[in-house]
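Page 42, continued from yesterday. The earlier attempt failed because a stray header line got pasted into the input along with the sequence. Redoing it now with the clean sequence only.
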Amino acid sequence: MSLAPAIRRLIGPTGNLCAVIARTIPRLTRKKPGPRIALSPASWGVSDAPGWGHQLEPERVLSEAAAVGEGAIEAGPPGFLPDRSDQVKPILKQHRLRVVAGPAHAILHHHDIGGPELAHIDGQASWLAALGAETLILSAMAPKTAGFAHGIVLSSMGWAHLLHLIGSVQHVCSRHKLRLAVQPRYGSMIQGPGDIERLLVGTEAGLCLDTGHLVLVGADPVEVLELAAGRIQHVHLNDIDGSLALQVREYGLDYAEAVSGDLFKPLGTGDASVDRVVETLRHAGYRGWYTLDQDTRLPSAEDRPLGTISRSLQHLRKLLA
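This time it went through. Structure tokens are written below.
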């Protein structure tokens, strides 16, 4: 059977076979997109909490993240990356990394300080948008005097201010073409299932589902996922020692000390139902980012968190395969 007619149809009347090959090869060799996995500097012990531990240089964190990850990171706390986007972009390009999300911490339950807090969030949103990020992760923080206190109770008026200002933050994010993901977490004003339900009913904001922190405040991550069906905008994956979490939550064990005592575990080895959470998210059609975000404290520069990070990444890749 002659192939000539088929070849003539392929190359067309111009007979330019080289052009056909040039158009075809990229389609044949285009790499399939990998899983949407990002890494958080927190997994390298990076934090702006006073006395948290040894802070690694950004160069080391970014180099290691580029070596083991999928090319995506979160922005980290203020000061980890330069506060000017034109200074950040060359650093990211050098390491072939992109920023997909970043945090904003604000006190939002007092109307008298809402204006300055919203201005701060607007600046952070502008910076993230300039870097090409997709999501702003909002933590509604307690007053600084509360520290990592658990179970802070807001009055009805306090909740009204909080929900109203979260709505204002959502408008800020929309203006910068970012998604908003409110993060219920230990030490914030939004923690357990009751707080989360109030947030979902009182606002249209999405959630950042943080598996370990939900266990830490006495919630079941799978139940929260079912409660917030369709509202999950971003996911922080970390695993946790349930008995240590109980000591922090019920018996006043200091959170920082618990982190130093291996509160957070490699994915799949703790009590945060990580495998079930990922399975449920995939079944529900979640298409957002999964960020490995495990709070870590480093006593010195000689500590090497990369082993634990790599182990967790390997487990997550299997779950998403």
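Notes: DSSP finds 13 helices and ten strands in the chain.
Reminder to self: strip header lines before submitting.
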